[in-house]
């Protein structure tokens, strides 16, 4: 059973891990023998990792491997694993761990796609860059399944989404809070696609389609993208899916330089090709898969109450919701699931739950599928 390292001081920069590292749900983070590259990586391991083959600090902290982790915990585990893998040194083979990580995201989406989609909007903790990549992978898995991509293609597209910004992680930290970019900074940004390909190749990734997704995810059908100004069918459909997910997930996430866009607005802008040219056919399929009101969207109902979309409905305009206030706006102790009366519980508008100060836990809305 995975257990905690007895003394974190045993971890040393430049030395291999003495044993496999797991997270609190029993998911493998890094294998024994992975060479530690920095003090910050040690800090992350001390904070998140459990270990195989050594004595625990607190027995109660050992994960219950007999219990299946919830879809939400799988997603949060994927974020932690991706953070650690993004620090892998040159020469490490990250191809297999990254594909295993892609399988973790797929497992979460298959278990409860609505919880996975809601995590994009409702679980905004941690590094934006890492969270964004996992969010995009979730959107790709759900939309790619609806588009009937093969299992092999889905695995590749998820891996591509997870790693599309590996060439920009350090740059994102440096540019955080920076306003308008100067010429040098813009060149650094547009160079991140090719840097990402180099990063992956130096760490054992040889799948040409995977590398193509990372290199081309900022190309646009009208030739306005980068780095090679490809256009039309020269951009592979898998890459175009990652581009859609990248744009949508970026727009619905707040950053230092801009506020989050409401999800229905972000999807409408994709449909209307506003701000970023995309393939119209793929955009329509993407929006249909996520729903006009994706799970996790805050809405006002016809009866006046505030609710959260919990499940995509049989029709785009009829999602399942749970009310978190009365029709008079008073906060309800526990969300009330709405199953009937389509008139009273019809969506009239999308609202920003953060602006309204109406945060609600995902577990309260989805139960055991959203436990941590």
What does this structure look like?
The chain has 372 residues and is of the alpha+beta class. 44% of the residues lie in helices and 10% in strands. The protein has helices spanning 39-48, 71-85, 95-111, 113-122, 128-146, 151-163, 169-175, 183-190, 192-201, 208-216, 237-251, 263-271, 280-290, 353-356, 362-366, and strands at residues 2-3, 21-22, 28-30, 50-52, 298-301, 306-311, 320-325, 331-338, 347-351. It starts with a strand and ends in a 6-residue tail after the last helix. The model is unreliable at 52-66 (pLDDT under 50). Strands 8-7-6-5-9 form a five-stranded antiparallel β-sheet. It has a four-stranded antiparallel β-sheet with strand order 1-4-2-3.
List strands and helices in order, with pairings.
Layout: E1 2-3, E2 21-22, E3 28-30, H1 39-48, E4 50-52, H2 71-85, H3 95-111, H4 113-122, H5 128-146, H6 151-163, H7 169-175, H8 183-190, H9 192-201, H10 208-216, H11 237-251, H12 263-271, H13 280-290, E5 298-301, E6 306-311, E7 320-325, E8 331-338, E9 347-351, H14 353-356, H15 362-366
Antiparallel strand pairs: 1-4, 2-3, 2-4, 5-6, 5-9, 6-7, 7-8
């Amino acid at each position: 059973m995975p257990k905690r390292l007895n003394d974190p001081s045993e971890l040393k920069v430049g030395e291999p891990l003495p044993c496999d590292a797991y997270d609190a749900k029993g998911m493998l983070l890094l294998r024994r023998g992975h060479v530690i590259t920095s003090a910050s990586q040690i800090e992350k391991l001390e904070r998140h990792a459990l270990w195989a083959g050594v004595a625990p600090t607190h027995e109660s902290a050992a994960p219950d491997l007999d219990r299946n982790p919830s879809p939400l915990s799988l997603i949060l585990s994927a974020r932690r694993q991706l953070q650690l893998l993004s620090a892998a040194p040159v020469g490490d083979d990250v191809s297999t761990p990254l594909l295993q990580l892609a399988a973790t995201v797929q497992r979460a989406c298959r278990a409860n796609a609505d919880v996975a989609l809601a995590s994009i909007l409702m679980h905004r903790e941690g590094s934006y860059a890492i969270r964004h990549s996992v969010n995009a992978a979730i959107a790709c898995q759900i939309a790619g399944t609806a588009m009937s991509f093969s299992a092999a293609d889905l695995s590749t597209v998820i891996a591509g989404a997870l790693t599309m910004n590996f060439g920009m992680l350090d740059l994102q930290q440096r540019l955080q809070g920076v306003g308008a970019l100067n010429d040098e900074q813009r060149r650094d940004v547009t160079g991140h696609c090719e840097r990402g390909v180099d990063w992956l190749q130096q760490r054992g990734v040889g799948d040409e389609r995977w590398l193509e997704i990372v290199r081309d995810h900022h190309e646009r059908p009208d030739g306005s993208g980068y780095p090679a100004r490809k256009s039309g069918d020269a951009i592979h459909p898998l890459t175009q899916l990652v581009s859609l997910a990248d744009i949508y997930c970026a727009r619905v996430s707040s950053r230092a330089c801009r506020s989050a866009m409401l999800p229905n607005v972000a999807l409408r802008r994709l449909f209307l090709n506003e701000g970023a040219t995309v393939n119209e056919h793929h955009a329509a399929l993407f929006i249909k898969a996520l729903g006009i009101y994706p799970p996790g969207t805050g809405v006002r109902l016809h009866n006046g109450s505030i609710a959260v979309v919990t499940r995509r409905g049989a029709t785009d305009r009829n999602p399942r919701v749970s009310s978190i206030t009365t029709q008079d706006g008073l906060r309800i102790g526990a969300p009330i699931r709405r199953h009937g009366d389509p008139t009273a519980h019809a969506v009239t508008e999308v609202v920003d739950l953060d602006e309204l100060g109406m945060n609600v836990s995902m577990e309260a809305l989805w139960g055991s599928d959203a436990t941590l």
